[in-house]
Design goal:
124 residues, mainly beta, 6-stranded mixed sheet, 4-stranded antiparallel sheet, 10 strands, 0% helix, 46% strand
């Protein structure tokens, strides 16, 4: 099982940008699907973005056009660039990695093991 460590959260004003980092324990991300989810206070964990092991990326409708997921192969890391942040983006953001998840299950939070996450707070 690939372990990950998230970082980069913080407190920003609406309209600002943040970049979250997710460093994986694997020497390579080849064949590994990387995902970002988030959990807002009082809500269920929800899908944000994914980089399927083929390189195809997926986004939740709520973040499409504002967030982007990218990979740094040299560091076995993925990033979540978040632009035009809104107060409703406030949540704990979690990264996960899996070499076993199937495509139809990519947005299912139960398909992954979760770490501590990183807090993102967007003030209005």
């Amino acid at each position: 099982q690939v372990q990950v460590v998230e970082s980069g959260g913080g407190l920003v004003q609406a309209g600002a940008s943040l970049r979250l980092s997710c460093e994986a324990s694997a020497r390579t991300l080849s064949g590994v699907t990387m995902v970002w989810f988030r959990r807002a206070p009082g809500k269920e964990r929800e899908f944000v973005a994914a980089r399927w092991r083929s390189g195809t990326v997926f986004y939740a409708d709520a973040v499409k056009g504002r967030f982007s997921i990218s990979k740094d192969s040299a560091k076995s890391a993925v990033y979540l660039q978040m632009n035009s942040l809104k107060p409703e983006d406030t949540a704990v953001y979690y990264c996960a990695a899996s070499s076993r998840v199937i495509l139809s299950n990519i947005r299912n939070p139960t398909a992954y093991d979760w770490g501590q996450g990183t807090q993102v707070t967007v003030s209005s």
